[in-house]
Write a structure and sequence with these properties.
CATH topology of the largest domain: 434 Repressor (Amino-terminal Domain)
Number of helices: 6
Order of helices and strands: HHHHHEEHEEEEEE
Radius of gyration: 23 Å
Strand order of the largest sheet: 5-4-3-1-2-8
Number of strands: 8
Helix content: 40-55%
Length: 186
């Protein structure tokens, strides 16, 4: 639930302000600035707080009660954390991601006979990296835990946090990309 977005929407409509009016009240001067700030305000109302500086300007422009804003932000964070925990607790398959050389991560299919056994998957990953200095493997055990394995040893363990993925990726053109390898029986 986007409580802050709803509060801003209601107050903006009560005043009969457009997004442009609110953008100007937040300090936009030129048409280009007004357009950019208006776009950010649309996202703010629809998706929630993205920019603390903009929130401060909005609070001032709409003369919002700071105590109400703080309470709504707290309520929203609590609900988002509860939702994230429900998602993180869902059962998922173990995943294996390999970095054969710097800058490239590939998601590999696990052998069917070990795919649901954490210890066997970890041993499999250790064997993949033994005697191979360049190769790194990340085993995503579930949505909360992952291991990084190099030179046949676990070199790092990661615990997930809300909105931070444990799966490795490469950024290409500003987008996160994971390559997936699969076998074809044809």
């Amino acid at each position: 639930m986007n409580y802050i977005g709803e509060l801003i929407h209601e107050e903006r409509h009560r005043r009969r302000w457009s997004f442009g009016d609110l953008a100007r009240a937040c300090g936009a001067v030129t048409p280009k600035q007004t357009s950019r700030v208006s776009q950010r305000l649309v996202l703010f109302e629809r998706e929630g707080v993205r920019d603390q500086n903009l929130l401060q300007l909005i609070i001032t422009a709409l003369d919002l009660d700071l105590a109400v804003v703080v309470e709504l932000l707290h309520r929203q964070r609590v609900e988002e954390l509860e939702e994230w925990n429900r998602w993180a607790d869902e059962s998922v398959e173990i995943e294996l991601h390999m970095r054969p050389f710097a800058g490239v991560w590939i998601k590999l299919q696990l052998p069917v006979d070990i795919a649901h056994d954490e210890l066997r998957v970890i041993d499999y990953a250790k064997q993949m990296t033994a005697q191979r200095d360049e190769v790194r493997v990340v085993v995503a055990l579930d949505r909360r835990r992952s291991l990084t394995i190099a030179r046949g040893e676990v070199v790092a363990t990661m615990e997930a946090k809300p909105n931070v993925s444990l799966k490795p990726y490469v950024v290409i053109g500003g987008r996160r990309v994971v390559f997936e390898a699969s076998r074809s029986d044809e």
